[in-house]
Amino acid sequence: MANTIKKQVVLIVDDDPVTRMLMTQSLTSSELQIVEAASGEEAIIQFTTHKPDITLLDVSMPGMNGFECCAQLRALPKGAECAIVMVTALDDVEDIEQAFESGATDFITKPLKWPLFKHRVRYILKANKTLQELSLNKNKLAKAQSIANLVYWEWDFESEFLECSSDMFDMLGFSKETNLTVRTALKKVHPDDRPRLMMALKQAVYEKQSYDIEYRIIRNDGSVLFVNERTDISFEYGQWRMVGTLHDITSRKQSEQEITYYAYYDTLTDLPNRRLFIEQLETAIASAKRHQNKFALMFLDLDRFKYINDTYGHHIGDEVLCQSAVRIRECVRDSDVVAKANYDADNRVARLAGDEFTVLLDDVGRVEQVAEIAQRLIQAFSEPFLISDKFLHISISMGITLFPDDGHNVQTLLQHADVAMYHAKEKGRNNYQFFSETMNNYLKLRLEMENDLRIALAEQQFEVFYQPQYDAQSITIVGVEALLRWRHPTKGLLTPDVFIEVAESTGLILSIGNWVLMQACLQVREWQKTSGCAYRIAVNLSASQFTQSYLLDTIKNTLDVTDLPPETLELEITETAMLKDTAETIPLLFSLKKLGVRLAIDDFGTGYSSLSYLKNFPIDTLKIDRSFVEEIVSNTKDCAIAQTIVQLADNLQLCTIAEGVETSEQAEVLRKLGCAEFQGFFFSHPMPAQQLRLLLDH
Ligand SMILES: Nc1nc2c(ncn2[C@@H]2O[C@@H]3COP(=O)(O)O[C@H]4[C@@H](O)[C@H](n5cnc6c(=O)[nH]c(N)nc65)O[C@@H]4COP(=O)(O)O[C@H]3[C@H]2O)c(=O)[nH]1
Fold first, then answer.
1. ipTM of the complex
2. What number is the average pLDDT over the span 261-286?
3. How far is CA 458 from CA 455, 461, 512, 515, in A?
4. Would you say the CB of residue 511 lies under 6 angstroms from ligand 1?
5. Is the CB of 659 under 6 A from ligand 1?
């Protein structure tokens, strides 16, 4: 392909044809295209058509003179980029000044020196091209800088003024006319960042060390701009100078802050999350070690939160968490302990997960102070939460550990606070507990037990024992109570008092309970079939089994599978379980009753003893608790209570069965009181199925 170099265009404007001709002759070459105009008016037309690179413009022409023409050419498109050289015969200073004022690039005087003329024109063309390229590059640079949010400045160390790009005035909030000095620019820097920048500047001036730092600028409207300043120091033309760029990194900083927020804060409550809390705890440990002081860690858990979430839905649950966060914060904000340590109280509270919160109290002098705050927190939750027109009562259980007394590292402190919190839950919730080593051992045992229970279930280490229940008059067996036993591989045969509570709290009781139910029904059905007697089987239901929505289906299914006559199955439920949530339990009791099974209240007299519920509930039997039977012979009060229970049962046409009958005297008193049935060691201990079969056979 031919290499076509674009010719540069020269416009010659002169009313004298001879001058035009001579100029053309002098300039004619393969690189230049010559265009002529005989007047200012024609020059405008030619200029618009050819867009020349240089215009040689005669000053004195009839009509529009050279100055006027020059001014008009400059206003045309591309007019600013063309070199306009005034050709004047008048070697007069005023003319020259007027020429520049009207926008001329240069001037040549007549008479023209022809050997020099073409060199002069070529030189001006070249210079103009370089200038244009320079201006183009400058524009490109300015554009690039503006895209990159970059401004620049220059400082020659000796002067106090800064030379800067126009965008820098905007960035700092100065008008473009401002004579910007280092001092005035520094005033815009955030006071916290200023000393750092001044230090860098000093090193630059005295040690010629360039710098690269980030700092904040406060703009006139108060908004904060984050900038990154990079500098370069050089020695040029006998002078030290420093060039710097300022990069607006505000959006990057904001993104960084956002990322940090998501990484370190809980978006629901705005509290520090687990990660930030662990870092704070580490810092607290390091600081307490350095200053040899104490701090406290509180571990809070909302009581019944799961219930609220399940009952009212997650949006209410979330609101509870938010309001709880506010209450905890408020309590801690007022705390003298936190104020004393000059820490940001808001950051002392964290949300670890779900309904678990922590509070760090620094520089604790006396443990009593911590107890006061704990009490204040408990108090703060005594007021109900108002959420979506509902008043919800939520309490907290709290475990407290102290550094260094209860642990030296994050893990131990947290673990022990958790143990203490667990203990608070066990103590009936809505309270706080300080950690103690005994507590720890106890909980370790519990954990072991929980583990063993799972194994027991998987490896079928459970057994059902049966204790006969006798008719008080005939002393014949009318039924049996199924009682769970655990044949532990190392600890031997265990009774429920050792493990039932752990099974309850871990939920394992559900699987265990279902297993007992099935096992007992199968067994008693077999006895019924072989003996032809309608023996009754009493099975204990734990509170959690009783609140399971599928209890009814479980019972139905067990009856179906075992073919047991429903009226021979008696479900023993404690008073407490039955009265926990009567809105739910009453319909359930009626549904169970509809299946035909019998219902007994276990340990009657030890719970609420609210007699009013008896007439509302479809109950068949009251079991007189062992505690009343124990001293029934010697203690008149116990005897009176037993009597009242029997009379009450009679009035309501319920059956009574006395538990824990150990002596014939007790049996005698109870018989006289009118108690219908007996169960106790005096008659028979709980025993394995094979053993009981022998008893039944007799
Ligand atoms: N001192 C004394 N005690 C007597 C006498 N007669 C019977 N007992 C004991 O009294 C308890 C009666 O059972 P409970 O009140 O339902 O109390 C039961 C019941 O609440 C619970 N339990 C037992 N088996 C199960 C089960 O399968 N599921 C559930 N949820 N709980 C069970 O464990 C509790 C304790 O059961 P056990 O240790 O088997 O203890 C049994 C029995 O061995 C006596 O004359 N003197």
1. 0.97
2. 91
3. 5, 8, 10, 12
4. no
5. yes
